[in-house]
Amino acid sequence: MKPLTIVSSRTPTGSLLEVAGDLDHSNAQQLRGAAVGAFLSAGLLLVVDLGALGFCDSSGITALIAVRNHAVAAGAAVILVAVPETLRRLLHMTGLDQVFDIRDTLTPHPS
Predict the structure, then answer these.
(1) Rg (Cα) of the chain, in Å, rounded?
(2) Tens of pLDDT along 19-45?
């Protein structure tokens, strides 16, 4: 098991959470706490970079939903970036790919 690390930083458009390691029942609360500590307000973005995520169980997915709910309650939007293929499949199978804005990179979508 890889320890979970979350690096939080501010960006011109809001906040960035860089998540690395394994996200599971033993540490999912850390992600929720990082979202609560992130700078969020109406019109801003919370970007969650999952490019270095090694593993995510159902508790991790629940934490991602809680992060989204927290951001939406603050009027902010959430983008999941660099989602590993295994997690992307789980999000698709559960229909959560329709709830989350999932992108390969931080590059904006073409208009």
Answers:
(1) 13
(2) 999 999 999 999 999 999 998 999 999
What is the distance of C-alpha 51 from the center of its chain?
10
- Give residue 8's identity as a one-letter amino acid code: S
Beta bridge partners, 16, equal 9, 47
- Which pair of structure tokens corresponds to residue 46? 């919370």
CA distances from 50 to 41, 43, 73, 85, 111 (A): 22, 22, 22, 11, 25
Contact 4, 22 (CB under 8 A): yes
Domain-wise residue ranges, the chain: 5-103
- The CATH superfamily assigned to 5-103 is STAS domain (3.30.750.24)
The per-residue pLDDT for range 61-110, each reduced to its tens digit, is 999 999 999 999 999 999 999 999 999 999 999 999 999 999 998 765 54
Q: Determine if the pTM surpasses 0.85.
A: yes
